[in-house]
């Protein structure tokens, strides 16, 4: 069967002497693997279509399993992401995270739109730390692990004038009276809690200019990292690389 789908390359790997296999996050067909014959050859007309982060229209034959590319057209190459080590690192993390969370054939419209918006925002020089934290929140929400941030996850009461704690293990905020249910629960500043609540409501596609203090970004990063570890438990090579970049001041 011949398919024509809009998709973003989230993974690209060599296959044999001259071929590549790409993994696409498509808008209407979920996550699909496609064999691109001759993509590694110098004069290949399909080589550009196999570059990671590439957003394009892909036409391929597929009965079951792996598809075989027939033709394609680039919509946005995102070459600037590949040429900047910092942007490439964040974009790689976004793609690898989605690749690990999204199952084959799972409906991918929401995932596709969030990834597209994430790559576009990185390409437009918006703060990558904020973009990725918001993207992680969208991943948690769409995977069914959205944190409860408006009330205490234990007693259910909203306590706007009281200090909250954040419990990634229990999946949300705890009031002081309920903190004993998770002693390792982290303190959270009012500013960070307000931003996290905003993240649950804002769509990446509608994100404008955002200015966040460095200390708040670090707090948000620590909290989101804990949520991702507790709720998804994924080990990602791209995240390790991001950690190394932070260590050496990139």
From TrEMBL:
What protein name does the entry list?
Answer: DNA repair protein RecO
- Is DNA repair given among the entry's keywords? yes
Question: According to its UniProt record, what is one Pfam family this protein matches?
Answer: RecO_C
Task: Say yes or no: keyword Cell membrane present.
Answer: no
Domain DNA replication/recombination mediator RecO N-terminal intervals: 1-77
* Role of this protein: Involved in DNA repair and RecF pathway recombination.
Family of this protein: Belongs to the RecO family.
Arranged from A to Z, the UniProt key words for this protein are: DNA damage, DNA recombination, DNA repair
Q: What is the gene name?
A: recO
